[in-house]
Structure formats: structure tokens, C-alpha cells
Amino acid sequence: MGLSLKFKTNVLSAIVILGILSLRVAECSSHAEKLVYQALNCRKHTAFLTDFGAVGDGKTLNTKVFNSAIRNLSGYASDGGAQLIVPPGKWLTGSFNLTSHFTLFLEKGAVILGTQDESQWPPLPVLPSYGVGREAPGGRLSALIFGTNLTDVIITGNNGTIDGQGSIWWDKFRAGKLKLTRPYMIEIMYSNQIQISNLTLLNSPSWFVHPIYSSDIIISGLTILAPVDAKNTDGVDPDSCSNVRIEDCYIVSGDDCIAVKSGWDQYGIKVGMPTQHLFIRRITCISPYSAAIALGSEMSGGIQDVRAEDITAINTESAIRIKTAVGRGGYIRDIFARRLTLKTMKYVFWMAGNYNQHPDSNYDPKAIPEIKGINYREVVATNVTYAGKLAGIKSDPFTGICFSDMNITMNLKEDKLPWNCTDIDGVTSNVTPKSCASLPQKKDVTCLFPYDKQPIEDVQTKTCSYAH
Ligand SMILES: *[C@@H]1O[C@H](CO)[C@@H](O)[C@H](O)[C@H]1NC(C)=O
Ligand SMILES: *[C@@H]1O[C@H](CO)[C@@H](O)[C@H](O)[C@H]1NC(C)=O
Ligand SMILES: *[C@@H]1O[C@H](CO)[C@@H](O)[C@H](O)[C@H]1NC(C)=O
Ligand SMILES: *[C@@H]1O[C@H](CO)[C@@H](O)[C@H](O)[C@H]1NC(C)=O
Ligand SMILES: *[C@@H]1O[C@H](CO)[C@@H](O)[C@H](O)[C@H]1NC(C)=O
Ligand SMILES: *[C@@H]1O[C@H](CO)[C@@H](O)[C@H](O)[C@H]1NC(C)=O
Ligand SMILES: *[C@@H]1O[C@H](CO)[C@@H](O)[C@H](O)[C@H]1NC(C)=O
Ligand SMILES: *[C@@H]1O[C@H](CO)[C@@H](O)[C@H](O)[C@H]1NC(C)=O
């Protein structure tokens, strides 16, 4: 079964046909076994990137090939869908667009390389909930792998690699030479039923994985690596999304490993789409200048019902950081985290109500964010400089904060107050070292972690197989 290409001999010379045939033979010997993988949906039709004339030498640009292959396979959306298999090789490309009922599968040894030729990254309009380009007012560039208005889209593989070759973008950003906001590695917007799994993602120009205005999303088994000094290389940024599961990822990056967002100031308030029902588990994070999990700073559409468990962070600036400011509006509420293992942290917990970066000067100074119901428990942290730096907003305190069962071992070389709390209100229980006066110790309180499951926790994948 699958897709066979019917070449018109009147337009193709015999030499081209022979060339393609010999490529196919060489390729068949290199991928001998059958593919077996887990996915939300399996596909009826299969094609290889090489069927469409791709060249995997790391030098030939394949942007047109990716786009035309996926356009071709979109024709099977209503007939069981299609998968595009990327074989071993180095496939240089600019931005390309995904389609519905579609799987992009990267075999072991397949590397998609983002080109450093800027003309291959087309501009896109700014995101409505941001109003402006985040890094330059003129707009933004399309992600390497982009999808919009889709349903049922999967990017997976046997740990194949996507390498954004981001260094040119990091250099431009540092030099203040960007004309448009840097591209992300993968961005999917206005879509549902999304799976991104079992891949290695390297060196994104900016954020790695950015689902926005989307729902029913599983992100699993990703190894995400960028130099820790590469600015804004966030790992996964669920942004105005519902029903999201992020699990079994290993992230080393130059910004937050997971950054939960929902739009920026007046633009985010107007769009009004929260990120909610987000479940994060079994994540390992190394990020010396940022957080394992950040909530904000763009949170103007609201963030609620976020649950995180079994998080490991090593040499990370903070474990969970809440960032907001006057002008954001929105809320961060019903946040639950448990079983955190932390080693070498500047701040275990950090909350800041003064993250005063704004899209423009037209933000509403009366748009006060509500931060309420923050529950963290079962935390073991060692070699910590500050246990908590918790600063709400004057006349808008952060309330309902609960910390229980925490053993935080301070870095003894530092002679600092472990906790510093201003404009916050809540309780602590069985927390060492003893917290500040605004979080009084109560006896044997266990902070809440909900017993009911979020619907995304029960979503199962199917076993898909394809023999070639
Ligand atoms: C990812 O790979 C792991 C181990 O190789 C496997 O157990 C898991 O099912 C895969 N997950 C998906 C979603 O493909
Ligand atoms: C995909 O391309 C092949 C080869 O050109 C063609 O035979 C087939 O009809 C195309 N499929 C669709 C859905 O366009
Ligand atoms: C990809 O999608 C964007 C947004 O819809 C569109 O502007 C662009 O033309 C598409 N690119 C291709 C190659 O189809
Ligand atoms: C995509 O969906 C959004 C939100 O529903 C809608 O505003 C937009 O027009 C759609 N775009 C396309 C190309 O269908
Ligand atoms: C995937 O590849 C990365 C990079 O080579 C490696 O660190 C990771 O352990 C691999 N993951 C799996 C499940 O094999
Ligand atoms: C903290 O240490 C105490 C005393 O050793 C121990 O009983 C408790 O289980 C520890 N808490 C956690 C969350 O590991
Ligand atoms: C403890 O943290 C400090 C930074 O505060 C770091 O320089 C040092 O290497 C860490 N020690 C260990 C044993 O990890
Ligand atoms: C505590 O934090 C406040 C506000 O962030 C700061 O002004 C103050 O200096 C800090 N206090 C100590 C003792 O570090």
C-alpha cells in the first residue's frame, strides 16, 4: 500500500528516472526494518520525502520539496490521512506548512536542518494576542515547521533530529539587528489534536515548540538542547491552549524549559484565551538563567488549572516562577505542583509582580492581574541560595499561597535570608527553612493537588506500523 508516483515519461528524461530509481534502491537498503510507533492516529497512506525529489546532502535546499510533498499529501486527508517519512540524511530546508490528518515521521538518523538563508523564512502577521512582534515591531517570521487551522497533526519519529541552526539568529538578536521577530522551531495555531513526540530538537532560533490558540495537545519524549546562553530558546510554550500534556522531556536551554503563556497586555486581554487544563510530568530541566516552569510573563488571557509533578531541575535559576505586571490583567490561579527534586538553584520559588515589559505604552494601568491559589508540595532542594523571593503587587497581593513538605538545604557559603516575601498571603506546613511571616507555619497542612484527572491524562496513543 502507499503512494506510488506515476511519472510522465514525456516530461522526464530517462536519465532523471534512472537517477531516482538508483536513489530509491540505495535508500531501501538503509531503512530495512518496519516502523512501529505510538500516535493519536495511524495513517492509511505513506510517502517518503525522497519520492518528491528531496536531496539529503545537507546542502541542497528542500523547502519547495517539503511544501509540495505536504500539499500533495493533504489530498488524502479525507481518505485515512497520510504520513510523510523523512529518511536518514540531512535535509536542509526553510519554513514549511503542515496539513490536517497528517504525520511527519523522522526516522532514526534523519536530520531536518533549518537553513541560515533568511529568504526561506517568510514573514507572517503578528499574533493577535501579542499585537506586535515580540522582538521587533515589524512583525515576525514563520516557524520552521508551521501549521494553522488544522486538526489531527503529528510530528514524531524514532528520535530523529530537527536542528534549527539558530546561531545566526542569536547573533543578530544580541547585536540588535533583527528587523522581524525571530522564527520559532515548531508553531501550530488554531488547531486541535496535536502530537509532538520522540524527537531531538536542537538550536532553535528562538522558542522551540509553540502551540497557540489550540487544544488537545500531547508533547512527549522530546530532547531539547540549546546553549544555555542562547537568548529566548524556551523549550515548550503552551500559549492560549487548553488540554495539554507535556511529559518525559529533557530540556537544556537558554530560557524557561516550559513557559506557560496567554498573550500580552491589552492585546491578550482582548483575545481573552486562557491556557488551562495543562498537565506537566517527568520533566528534567537545566537552565542556569531561567526557570524550569514559568507562568507568564505574558498571561493576559489567564492561566488556570496547571498541574505539574515529578519535575527535576539541576543548575536552574528557579523551579517555578510567576512573572506578571500591572497592565497584564488576566489571572494565574489554581496552580498545583508536587514532587520536585532540585539541585543548585538561585531561587526555589520566585514570584514577581514587576515584570514590566510591555508591547507598547498603551497598556491599561488599571489592568491588575489576579494571582491566587498557588499550591506547591513535596519539594527536596539542595545547594540553594534563596528559598523564595516572593513579591506581589502593592495593593494587589498574591493570595492563597500554600507550601507544604519541603526540605530546602541552603548553600552554606551564602549568608542570605532564605525567604523574602512582600505583598503575598498564604500558609506553609513542614517547610524548612521556616518561611516568612506572611506565610505562617500551620501544623500538618497538605497543600492541595486535585484527585480528579484532567481529560488529557487519559488520552491514549495507538500502535501504528508500516512495513517498507
Ligand atoms: C517514544 O519512545 C518511547 C521509548 O522509545 C516509547 O516507549 C514511547 O511509546 C514513544 N512515544 C511515542 C508517543 O511515540
Ligand atoms: C501526489 O503526487 C502524485 C505524483 O505526482 C500524483 O500521482 C498524485 O495524484 C498526487 N496526489 C495528490 C493527492 O495530489
Ligand atoms: C503557509 O501558511 C501561511 C499562513 O497561512 C501562508 O501565509 C503561507 O503562504 C503558506 N506557505 C506555503 C508555502 O504554502
Ligand atoms: C483560522 O482560524 C481562525 C480562528 O478560528 C480564523 O479567524 C481564521 O480566519 C482561520 N484562518 C483560515 C485561513 O481559515
Ligand atoms: C535521543 O537522542 C538524544 C540526542 O542524541 C539522546 O540524548 C537521547 O537519549 C535519545 N533518546 C532516546 C529515547 O533514545
Ligand atoms: C524532609 O525531611 C524530613 C526529616 O528527615 C523527612 O521526614 C521528610 O519526609 C522530608 N520531606 C520530604 C518532602 O522529602
Ligand atoms: C552550589 O551552587 C553554587 C552556586 O550557588 C555552585 O557554584 C556550586 O558548584 C554548587 N555546588 C555543587 C556541589 O553543586
Ligand atoms: C526583599 O525584597 C524586597 C522587594 O523585592 C526588596 O526591596 C528588599 O530589599 C528585600 N529584602 C532583603 C532583606 O533582601
UniProtKB/TrEMBL annotation:
Q: Which GO terms describe its biological process?
A: carbohydrate metabolic process
Question: Which UniProt keywords are listed?
Answer: Cell wall, Glycosidase, Hydrolase, Secreted, Signal
What Gene Ontology terms describe what this protein does at the molecular function level?
Answer: polygalacturonase activity
| Residues that span the membrane, as ranges | none
Task: Identify the main location.
Answer: secreted
The residue range of the signal peptide is: 1-28
**What does the UniProt entry say about where the protein is found?**
Secreted, Cell wall
- Domain of life of the organism in this record? Eukaryota
Family the UniProt entry places it in = Belongs to the glycosyl hydrolase 28 family.
Its name, as the record gives it, is Polygalacturonase
Natural source organism = Quercus lobata (Valley oak)
